[in-house]
């Protein structure tokens, strides 16, 4: 099994420059994270964009969807900013016969106390064991892509119960 990682930017890849929280989205951190964790799963990393998720457009979501749809690979982890992650997950729900897991971080991967490595590990595991579908791996949980939202006040993801 091969897992293809698609990077889009977001907090996981942010670089902060000063105390005023000036930042830019830097190089994807996923290669170094996987190497440092001694990951042996066959994988490939593809950088699609470097954007804060609040800056993602419908065209960007279309690029993510077409990239996955046109790829022979079946298993994908998409690193993504948390603010619009659920929106992107819903946009990807049309894809069939793929396992797609979106994840990110609430603090940059470069920070010692970041949740990034844990979320990446969760996403990789989910990608290997879940059936076809779209999921979000955050806060130690796997959510269905069309039944999740970010609770900004509590800084966590939650299931949507209908």
What can you tell me about this protein's structure?
- This protein has 162 residues and is an alpha/beta fold.
- The chain has one domain: 3-Layer(aba) Sandwich (Rossmann fold), CATH 3.40.50.
- The protein is 25% helix and 32% strand.
- The chain contains four helices and ten strands, in the order βββαβαβαβαββββ.
- The strands form three sheets. It has a six-stranded mixed sheet, sandwiched between helices. A two-stranded antiparallel ribbon has the order 2-3.
- The protein is globular and about 40 Å long.
Shape: globular
How does the helix and strand content classify structurally? alpha/beta
User: Going by CATH, what is the homologous superfamily?
Assistant: L-asparaginase, N-terminal domain
How confident overall, as mean pLDDT? 87
Q: Low-confidence parts lasting 5 or more residues at pLDDT below 50?
A: none
- State which percent range the strand residues make up: 25-35%
């Amino acid at each position: 099994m091969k897992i293809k990682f698609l990077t889009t930017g977001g907090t996981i890849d942010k670089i902060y420059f000063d105390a005023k929280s000036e930042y830019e989205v830097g190089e994807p951190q996923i290669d170094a994270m996987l190497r440092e964790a001694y990951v042996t799963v066959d994988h490939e990393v593809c950088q699609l964009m470097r954007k804060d998720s609040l800056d993602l457009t419908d065209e960007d979501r279309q690029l993510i969807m077409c990239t996955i749809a046109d790829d022979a690979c079946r298993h994908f982890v998409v690193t993504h900013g948390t603010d619009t992650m659920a929106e992107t997950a819903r946009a990807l729900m049309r894809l069939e016969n793929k396992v797609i897991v979106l994840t990110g971080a609430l603090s940059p991967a470069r920070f010692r106390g970041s949740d990034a490595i844990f979320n990446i590990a969760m996403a990789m595991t989910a990608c290997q064991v879940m059936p076809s579908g779209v999921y979000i791996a955050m806060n130690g949980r796997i959510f269905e892509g069309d039944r999740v939202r970010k609770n900004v006040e509590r800084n966590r993801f939650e299931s949507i119960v209908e």
